[in-house]
C-alpha cells in the first residue's frame, strides 16, 4: 500500500491504496464518490470517464499510481450547482433514459469542449464514438453538445 495525495474536484484528498488500484475504485470506494460509474472495466464503454487535467480518460484502466500531480475532475466537480452548460443542455434535450452512462458521456463531452470549444457535428461524433449508450440517445447527446457550445 502507498499513500497518494490526489487533487480531485479542486480539493486535495489523501488515500492509501495499492499502486495497481484503478482510479475508478479509488474514486468510488475510497473517496465514496458514486457519480463515476463502473461499466465494462476494460475502457471500452466510457461509463467511468473523468477528466485528468483537461483530458477525458477512462478511470477503470488508469492506475492511481499513474495520476501523479495531475488534477482529476469527476461529474461531482464539473459544477457545484449542476449548472455547467453541458448539464443544462442535457436537461434541455432530455438526453438520459436509463441515465447510467450519462456521467461518462458528459465528462467525455467536457473534455472535447476543453480541446475544441466549437466542434462540428462530425467532430462530436468522432469524439463521442467511444462512449456507449445502451438506450441509443446518441442524437440527443450530439444536439446537447451543440447547444452547450453556444
Q: Your description of this structure?
A:
The longest helix is centred in the C-terminal third of the chain and has 14 residues. This protein is an alpha+beta fold and 150 residues long. The protein is built from 6 helices and 5 strands; from the N terminus they run E-E-H-E-E-E-H-H-H-H-H. Helix 3 crosses helix 6. The radius of gyration is 15 Å and the shape is globular. 39% of the residues are buried. Helices cover 35% and strands 17% of the residues.
Keyword list:
17% strand, alpha+beta, globular, 35% helix, single chain, 5-stranded mixed β-sheet, 5 strands
Q: Tell me, briefly, the overall form.
A: globular
Spans of 5+ residues with little confidence (pLDDT < 50)? none
Tell me which oligomeric state these chains represent: single chain
Overall structural class, as computed from helix and strand content, comes to alpha+beta
Taking the alpha carbons of the first and last residues, their distance comes to 46 Å
- Number of helical stretches of at least 4 residues: 6
Q: Mean pLDDT across all residues, rounded? A: 95
Helix fraction, binned, reads 25-40%
Short synopsis of the structure:
The chain is an alpha+beta fold.
Amino acid at each position: 500500500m502507498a499513500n497518494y495525495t490526489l487533487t480531485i474536484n479542486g480539493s486535495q484528498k489523501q488515500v492509501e491504496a495499492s499502486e495497481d488500484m484503478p482510479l475508478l475504485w479509488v474514486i468510488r470506494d475510497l473517496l465514496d464518490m458514486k457519480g463515476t460509474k463502473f461499466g465494462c472495466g476494460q475502457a471500452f464503454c466510457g461509463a467511468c470517464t473523468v477528466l485528468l487535467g483537461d483530458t477525458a480518460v477512462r478511470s477503470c484502466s488508469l492506475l492511481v499510481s499513474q495520476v501523479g500531480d495531475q488534477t482529476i475532475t469527476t461529474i461531482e466537480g464539473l459544477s457545484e450547482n449542476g449548472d455547467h452548460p453541458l448539464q443544462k443542455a442535457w436537461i434541455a434535450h432530455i438526453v438520459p433514459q436509463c441515465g447510467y452512462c450519462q456521467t461518462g458521456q458528459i465528462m467525455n463531452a467536457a473534455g472535447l469542449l476543453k480541446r475544441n470549444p466549437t466542434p462540428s457535428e462530425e467532430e462530436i461524433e468522432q469524439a463521442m464514438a467511444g462512449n456507449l449508450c445502451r438506450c441509443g440517445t446518441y442524437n440527443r447527446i450530439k444536439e446537447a453538445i451543440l447547444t452547450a457550445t453556444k
